[in-house]
Amino acid sequence: MTLETTVAAIRPADEPAMAAARELQARLTKPAGSLGDLEPLSVRLAGLFGACPPPLPEPAAVAVFAGDHGVHAQRVSPWPQEVTAQMVANFLAGGAVVNAFARQSGAAVTVVDVGVATPLPAGSGLISANVRRGTRDMTVEPALTRDEARAAVEAGIRVAERLVADGAKCLLTGDMGIANTTPAATLIAAFTEASPEAVTGRGTGIDNAMYDHKVEVVAAVLEKHEPDPADPLGVLATVGGLEHAALAGFILGAAAQRVPVIIDGVIAASAALAAAAFAPDAVAAMVAGHRSAEPGASVALAHLGLSPLLDLGMRLGEGSGAVLALPVVAAAVRVLHEVATFDSAGVSEK
Ligand SMILES: O=C(O)c1ccc[n+]([C@@H]2O[C@H](COP(=O)([O-])O)[C@@H](O)[C@H]2O)c1
Ligand SMILES: Cc1cc2nc[nH]c2cc1C
Fold first, then answer.
1. Phi, psi dihedrals of residue 220, rounded to the nearest 5°
2. I want to staple 186 with a disulfide (CB 3.0 to 4.6 A). Which of 116, 120, 239, 247 is the partner?
3. Is the pTM of this model over 0.90?
4. In angstroms, what is the C-alpha Rg of the chain?
5. Dist. CA 296 → ligand 2 center (Å)
6. CATH annotation of 60-327
7. CATH fold of 3-55+335-345, please?
8. Looking at the chain, which residues constitute the CATH 1.10.1610.10 domain(s)?
9. Torsion sign (Cα): 72, 184, 241, 68
10. What tens digit of pLDDT does each residue of 88-135 get?
């Protein structure tokens, strides 16, 4: 589907299904509220699916969208750009953290080249959807044209459609792109109007001098382009990245199919803001997997009204935090399927 038809397919959560889930939660053999955040999560997932209980999130699929960034030339990351392509090869070989975590959680890993600068060999399971070999330097000119941003969003929509057609009942966001925490920070500032200082973090781990410079780069980019949050495609094009745009499409694609999408770290959180700007009801499909150590992630999740399931101080990306949260999401749903009621188990109520 196109961006427009996907946005048009996104509907609000189903209130009767949510009421049924709340009512069932109240009858299960446990004190009300004793499962904490899992209870409202189960209610939200019933509302998304449109019936109670919603299906277990199995099988689950994480898509790792990879791209490069012209702003890397401004020395906002200590890592060489070719690490993006090298890590793509590592994902495909099964040797990255996300692969190990996915084996642990039972998720399938899909890798998508949406904008890697280094040419990658076709085959070995890679989805080739390269829109251009890295963005332009957004300190100089818009990172992307509107057409390029749209092509990346629609590539993400297609990946979501393909994974669901292949049987996925839950989608998870992943990203890889050296320097991509800089456009993530600018996107979050653009959509939330938070200050550059509040949204900029240390990414892969940068020293104080590089951090101060990174804040200045984010501020300069916002000042130069004045992105309009009411025009999400324009924001993605001027101050975004190809994996950010593709992730926005991926999240919209999940929401349009009423499939939950577990949001990973700061890159996915910035894309989630774009998705919500295209279609506010898309938030109903989003589950915040974890609280990334990047400050912008917390700003973005608060803006979306989402509270993260895990808080482990992680800041890797790749989908690693989303994959770790998958068993928690599965447990929240399994309660609705398997836990006895006070009546059925003969347990006295207070
Ligand atoms: O997921 C996160 O919150 C996260 C936080 C910090 C870094 N990363 C990953 O690190 C890379 C970007 O870091 P940087 O410092 O090069 O902008 C990119 O590949 C991201 O997946 C990811
Ligand atoms: C080694 C490495 C692995 C990563 N995974 C996600 N971002 C990354 C950045 C680096 C540098």
1. -65, -40
2. 239
3. yes
4. 20
5. 18
6. 3.40.50.10210
7. 1.10.1610
8. 3-55+335-345
9. positive
10. 999 999 999 999 999 999 999 999 999 999 999 887 899 999 999 999
